[in-house]
């Protein structure tokens, strides 16, 4: 075991002590001698103890991974899903803009999968690249659908082949092109995507950060007016709502008033679901080590361990 890994294990166990794990319980759970464990925690070299602690931590991680909820259908998740499903019924343009960690990309990635967990062949999803050109954008779309593109194809041929393929695989549903991180695209490229909707009757989903919402729907950019006018859904997500966090906590079985208040304070401070889920996952590990439900003590310990500090 290398030094960095051993240091991380020590820090993890010390954080679990902050969450209420006792030294005696840790020794019993890991199968270590209590004195040997204490010495190892203080930095003494002890490969046998380190190995036992790692085995236990790996077991805890496996149990946590198998027991925790997957994607929770929060109110924001449902709003996004409603808009996305509309694109499969008829050609639509929808925009989803909002703060990082508001659930945009995770909801989209759930939507594009079929019942077998594979991408629906009539849905094309890409993340936009910086400094893209229209040929490069079309090549990225083509690669997402075919797995490749022919360098000899011209711009129009790539676009038409892509549209033909999406329609062929649609099986009665409307094909969809989803562009994530659209704030990376110049406005002229974004406006150029309207061709798929106007000429080939393919739905467009444009997803990105808050700033692009005002660019597209602010009425100041004539290039983007055609897209903005056609947007049937304009979702502007300013961050996770109180109801979003309440729904997640209910799914995780966290009912205590103090615990819920703590996580709502975290929502107000962080304005993102990603760190909230990290706190919950870390807290679940500490709770498993103590063999208790997630309580305020393990939530605080998890937040502190991740570098966040909140008071209820």
Tell me what you see in this structure.
- There is one protein chain.
- This protein is of the alpha/beta class and 312 residues long.
- The protein folds into 3 domains: 1-67; 75-237, Rossmann fold, CATH 3.40.50.300; 240-312.
- Helices cover 57% and strands 9% of the residues.
- It contains 16 helices and 5 strands.
- The protein has helices at residues 3-18, 23-30, 34-41, 47-67, 75-86, 104-111, 134-146, 155-168, 187-192, 194-200, 210-217, 225-230, 242-251, 257-270, 273-290, 296-305, and strands at 93-98, 123-127, 176-180, 203-208, 231-237.
- The chain has a 5-stranded parallel β-sheet, sandwiched between helices.
- Helix 1 (3-18) packs antiparallel against helix 16 and helix 5 (75-86) packs across helix 6.
- It is elongated.
- The mean pLDDT is 89.
């Amino acid at each position: 075991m290398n030094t960095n890994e051993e240091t991380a294990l020590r820090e993890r166990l010390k954080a679990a002590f902050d969450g209420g794990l006792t030294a005696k319980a840790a020794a019993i759970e890991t199968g270590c001698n209590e004195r040997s464990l204490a010495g190892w925690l203080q930095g003494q070299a002890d490969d046998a103890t380190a190995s036992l602690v790692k085995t236990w931590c790996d077991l805890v991680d496996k149990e946590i991974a198998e027991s925790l909820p997957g994607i929770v259908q929060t109110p924001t998740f449902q709003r996004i899903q409603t808009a996305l499903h509309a694109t499969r019924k008829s050609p639509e343009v929808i925009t989803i803009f909002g703060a990082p960690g508001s659930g945009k990309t995770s909801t989209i990635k759930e939507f594009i999968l079929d019942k077998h967990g594979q991408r629906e062949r009539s849905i094309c999803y890409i993340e936009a690249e910086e400094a893209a050109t229209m040929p490069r954008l079309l090549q990225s779309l083509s690669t997402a659908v075919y797995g490749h593109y022919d360098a000899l194809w011209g711009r129009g041929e790539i676009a038409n082949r892509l549209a033909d393929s999406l329609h062929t695989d649609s099986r009665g549903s409307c094909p969809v092109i989803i562009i994530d991180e659209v704030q990376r695209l110049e406005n002229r490229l974004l406006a150029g995507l309207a061709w798929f909707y106007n000429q080939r009757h393919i739905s467009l989903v444009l997803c990105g950060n808050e700033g692009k919402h005002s660019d597209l729907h602010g009425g100041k950019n004539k290039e983007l007016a055609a897209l903005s006018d056609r947007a049937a859904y304009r979702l502007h997500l300013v961050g996770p709502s109180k109801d979003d966090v309440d729904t997640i906590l209910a799914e995780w079985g966290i009912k205590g008033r103090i615990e819920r208040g703590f996580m709502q304070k975290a929502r107000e401070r962080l304005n993102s679901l990603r760190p909230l889920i990290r706190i919950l996952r870390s807290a679940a590990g500490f709770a498993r080590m103590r063999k208790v439900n997630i309580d305020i003590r393990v939530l605080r310990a998890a937040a502190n361990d991740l570098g966040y500090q909140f008071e209820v």
